[in-house]
Design a protein that fits this description.
This protein has twelve helices and 17 strands. By secondary structure, the chain is an alpha/beta fold. Strands 11-10-13-15-16-17 form a six-stranded parallel beta sheet, sandwiched between helices. Helix 3 runs parallel beside helix 5. The structure holds adenine. The site of adenine has 11 residues, from strand 5.
């Protein structure tokens, strides 16, 4: 992956990225970080790049032209227009989902401002994303760019060794990570929790989940507002089951799974609460070998309590659009009447990179609470 940083202080970036894990990744060719000095593109003989603001007021504003030319020097070299991120306290506050999404790009241009900001006209022309690293004001965008490079690089294949890339990401499921311990077993009179010594991984996982929850409640109760226990329900005998499990792996560490192929499961009452999130996949037109004939039978014992639901209606490729929409409407209405809030309706879980992108869209929807106002309605190829 290549980062192209447009800045007035290239040495600040250069000094920050050549040590530790990033330094190693650059040396091994997994990352490239190139800096472009905006001052080199000044048309002024004194290399000035700022001027007084129209309308008056304190401070200076960076001129549009040098920024535009610096940007152009990168896009001309690349022969295309990569995503261009302007680091600014007025941007969307960086989060883990954004970080992982940026990591899918091959090139990212990071634009660092100084003084009171940059002439808005050039921002309108070149910037695709406005990103802040937190609600405070820095003297310039360089530290923000370095934070972003560090966080994004962790998701670039090859940057972290196996040991370094722990499966569990703090902030997955909107929960903070559980506490960690290493030897000795007792230190300053404090013992390692016994459960961690028992070797029973189910018990250990349950304890870690509880600790994550407890810690989040204590330190970041705001995160719990949008923390959900995600359950996936699908007919394991039908096509697409494997794909929905891959999606679950992208969304949650603590998810549950319900197999709708099992009669016992379909017969029992399956109740879901407000802090649960359901991913439901059912065939819109069950195949002759499916355990039910009518898709509604899969969920006739499902009851929600304002439970958000992502509905995946698989199959039905040969159905006319009108017939598909009619059937989908009936299934949706039935689930709404049972207490579910449909936040997304799709025809299948996408494959390959599409799966990752779909998972980011869902994570953004689930873990920021956007699902309360937005609904995704799309065919797989629209995602
Ligand atoms: N530049 C100045 N303040 C910033 C912030 N909080 N995030 C990103 N870039 C900035």
């Amino acid at each position: 992956m290549r980062f192209h940083v447009l800045t007035l202080f290239p040495e600040m970036i250069e000094q920050g990225i050549h040590t530790s894990i990033l330094g190693r990744a650059i040396q091994n060719g997994y990352l490239q970080v190139e800096t472009t000095n905006i001052r080199d593109f000044s048309a002024n003989k004194f290399h000035r790049v700022d001027d007084y603001p129209y309308g008056g007021g304190a401070g200076m504003v960076m001129e549009a032209e040098p920024v535009f030319r610096a940007h152009q020097s990168v896009t001309e070299k690349l022969g295309r227009m990569p995503r261009t991120i302007y680091l600014t306290p007025q941007g969307k506050v960086l989060n883990q989902t954004m970080v992982e999404e940026f990591a899918l790009e091959e090139d990212l241009i990071l634009l660092c401002g100084h003084y009171e900001g940059i002439d808005d006209r050039v921002l309108q022309e070149v910037v695709t994303d406005y990103v802040s690293i937190g609600d405070y004001v820095l003297t310039g965008g360089e530290l923000g760019a370095m934070v972003l490079i560090d966080a994004v690089s962790r998701f670039v294949p090859g940057v972290l060794s196996n040991e370094e890339s722990s499966q569990f990401e703090s902030l997955q499921d909107n929960l903070l990570e559980y506490p960690h311990y290493t030897r000795p077993e007792e230190w300053h009179g404090k013992k390692v929790p016994e459960v961690l010594l028992c070797g029973d991984h189910k018990k250990i996982d349950a304890w870690r989940h509880e600790e994550s929850f407890r810690r989040t409640k204590e330190r970041r109760p705001d995160l719990l507002e949008n923390a959900f226990l995600i359950t996936c329900a699908c007919d394991e005998t039908q096509p697409g089951a494997e794909q929905i499990h891959k999606l679950m792996d992208e969304l949650t560490r603590y998810g549950k799974s319900i197999d709708l192929a099992r009669k016992k499961i379909r017969r029992q009452k399956n109740r879901f609460g407000e802090k649960e999130f359901l991913l439901l996949q059912i065939p819109i037109e069950p195949a002759p070998d499916a355990p039910v004939m009518d898709p509604g039978e899969y969920t006739e014992n499902f009851y929600g309590r304002k439970t958000p639901l992502v509905l995946i209606l698989s199959g039905g490729e040969e159905m006319a659009d009108e017939q598909w929409n009619e059937k989908a409407f009936l299934i949706e209405s039935d689930l709404c009447a049972r207490g579910f809030l449909i936040v997304a309706l799709v025809r299948e879980v996408p494959f390959g990179e599409g799966l990752k992108r779909f998972s980011f869209t869902l994570r953004d929807l689930i873990y920021t609470g956007k699902w309360k106002n937005e609904k995704i309605l799309a065919s797989a190829d629209a995602l």
